[in-house]
Amino acid sequence: MPVIRVLMAEDHKLVRQGIRSLLEKIDDVEVVGEVADGREAVQTARAVQPDIVLMDIAMPGMNGLEALARLNKDCPTTRVIILSMYSGEEYLRQALDAGAAGYLLKDADRAELDVALKTVMQGHTYLTPVVAKYAVESYREDKQHGRGPLACLSSRQREILQLIAEGHTTKAIAQQLDLSPRTVETHRAELMERLEIHDVPGLVRLAIRVGLINSNP
Predict the structure, then answer these.
(1) What total of structural domains would you count in the chain?
(2) For residue 215, is it within any domain?
(3) Is the full-model pTM beyond 0.85?
(4) Domain co-membership, 93 together with 186
(5) Whose CA is closest to 136, among 107, 93, 87, 82?
(6) pLDDT tens digits for range 16-33
(7) What's the domain range around 30?
């Protein structure tokens, strides 16, 4: 098998070091970069064109799911394996909706990581067994009915939701996304209306529940 070129996207340095240590013990795998947030993951992937991105979900600025959606458009030959600490169906649903090629828990050992990489490189989808055994049927049923708390939001609205939940002001969000403050306020009003949540604490709770942000720093 040709060398598998892997980019790691994970905001915790110690976790990245642990993953890298496992990857370096797998034959025919080369780590081509490490990044700490979703925006950097997209930019780096465009530059180095990795075969696979190992992507955390909860990262600052742009979470892994939004980065995944952008990578599927900008780097169609790159496949993304979500690397998460969460085994719940909601996280899996969001990952598959966004186009993930795999879903792996952070406590996976070297053998499972090896299987996941090679499975995805062969064009298949890899789901860690603890998730796959109970989640696939539920995911398929829900997807047919368009369920999920964020299904009603656009990609831009999900991005703004994350930034609001992270505590950024309207002005800061406008500067980061190169939008006018009025446009940000419009998106904010629309997403609150669609979610039927009309206060920031409620948005924060939702963002934590669906994995847009982490409840622990």
Answers:
(1) 2
(2) no
(3) no
(4) no
(5) 93
(6) 999 999 999 999 999 999
(7) 4-144
